[in-house]
């Protein structure tokens, strides 16, 4: 992909993918790290919609700042074990990568929390104080019905 002087490429990462922290493979739970998500998203961006791509390990490492071919190879091996990537080895410098849809982990429901304050509640709890008000006025607790302080 060629870019102009003022055009920058960026990598889009699916929010659902960012939310995945682990996957289960053959009954074992494996951590999904940010580097896994970055490599997966990069290969997916090259492939468009789940087509085959042939970037080199060195190219992936340089583009994503992941370092050596060995590091990239380890992340790709993990993606294959997660079932998110298929790799067809071939002679030469590149393999054929087929990006597969990732499986979202089952999200556990978060424990119930207190509801977030509504704007009405925030306004009711607000105290308006003039900038030039003495400190004694600014720290005075005002009954709920008479919250505004005017000077």
Descriptive tags:
globular; 151 residues; two-stranded antiparallel ribbon; alpha+beta; 34% helix; 3-stranded antiparallel sheet; Helix-turn-helix domain-containing protein; Arc Repressor Mutant, subunit A; 2 domains
Detailed description of the structure:
- The chain is of the alpha+beta class.
- It folds into 2 domains: 15-99, Orthogonal Bundle (Arc Repressor Mutant, subunit A), CATH 1.10.10; 115-151, no CATH class.
- 34% of the residues lie in helices and 12% in strands.
- The protein has a 3-stranded antiparallel β-sheet with strand order 3-5-4. Strands 1-2 form a two-stranded antiparallel sheet.
- Strand 1 (22-25) and strand 2 (28-31) form a beta hairpin.
- Helix 2 (34-47) crosses helix 4 and helix 3 packs across helix 4 (69-82).
- The longest helix is centred in the N-terminal third of the chain and has 14 residues, at 34-47.
- It is globular, with a radius of gyration of 26 Å.
- The model is unreliable at 106-112, 119-123 and 146-151 (pLDDT under 50).
- This is Helix-turn-helix domain-containing protein.
- It holds the Pfam family HTH_36.
């Amino acid at each position: 992909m060629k870019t102009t002087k003022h055009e920058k490429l960026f990598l889009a990462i699916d929010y659902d993918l960012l939310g995945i922290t682990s996957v289960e493979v053959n009954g074992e739970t494996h951590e999904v790290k940010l580097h896994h998500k970055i490599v997966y998203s990069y290969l997916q961006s090259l492939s468009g919609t789940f087509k085959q791509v042939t970037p080199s390990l060195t190219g992936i490492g340089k583009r994503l700042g992941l370092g050596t071919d060995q590091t990239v190879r380890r992340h790709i091996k993990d993606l294959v074990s997660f079932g998110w990537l298929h790799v067809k080895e071939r002679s030469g410098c590149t393999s054929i990568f087929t990006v597969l849809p990732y499986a979202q982990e089952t999200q556990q429901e978060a424990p119930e929390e207190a509801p977030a304050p509504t704007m009405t509640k925030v306004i009711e709890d607000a105290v308006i104080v003039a900038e030039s008000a003495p400190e004694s006025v600014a720290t005075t607790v005002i009954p709920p019905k008479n919250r505004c302080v005017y000077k």
